[in-house]
């Protein structure tokens, strides 16, 4: 039995979880999220807890058991607390600025790069080199942060670029002088 999959998920106060066929809808103070559960997995709500069960020990059922439980748990955390991902802009002349709801990056290109937030995602700029991506969907927050980092990845010689907060960039020595 999956160690993660068999753990019940406690439903905090102010959150409602409804199961309609294979759709699990989670509604909380920050918003509403829905999850489509894969075929063999069954989800039940009993006594302020969500229980995820699998019918057999087939390989696919075992793989989906823990995954489904974790995705439902992430949705519950998302509608109560939300998720944030921090980004840092490192480099001389590299900066980020808030322009309404979108952000504008100066990353050494000949033009500024503007990033629009998708629905459900908000950007917060602190200073001119820190950006916070926040929202209720963990997957969407991580994907938006990864796409922003992809604009200018940190390079290994000077460490310039966009990196996650707390990310350690392995540095290379570079050319030896005469």
TrEMBL record:
Pfam families linked to this entry: Ribosomal_L6 (PF00347)
Domain Large ribosomal subunit protein uL6 alpha-beta: 11-82, 90-164
Keywords for this protein: Ribonucleoprotein, Ribosomal protein, RNA-binding, rRNA-binding
Cellular component, GO annotation: ribosome
InterPro entries (UniProt xref): Ribosomal_uL6-like (IPR000702), Ribosomal_uL6-like_a/b-dom_sf (IPR036789), Ribosomal_uL6_a/b-dom (IPR020040), Ribosomal_uL6_bac-type (IPR019906), Ribosomal_uL6_CS (IPR002358)
Protein family: Belongs to the universal ribosomal protein uL6 family.
Subunit organization: Part of the 50S ribosomal subunit.
Role of this protein: This protein binds to the 23S rRNA, and is important in its secondary structure. It is located near the subunit interface in the base of the L7/L12 stalk, and near the tRNA binding site of the peptidyltransferase center.
Name of the molecule in the record: Large ribosomal subunit protein uL6
The organism of origin for this protein: Microbacterium gilvum
Lineage summary: Bacteria, Bacillati, Actinomycetota, Actinomycetes, Micrococcales
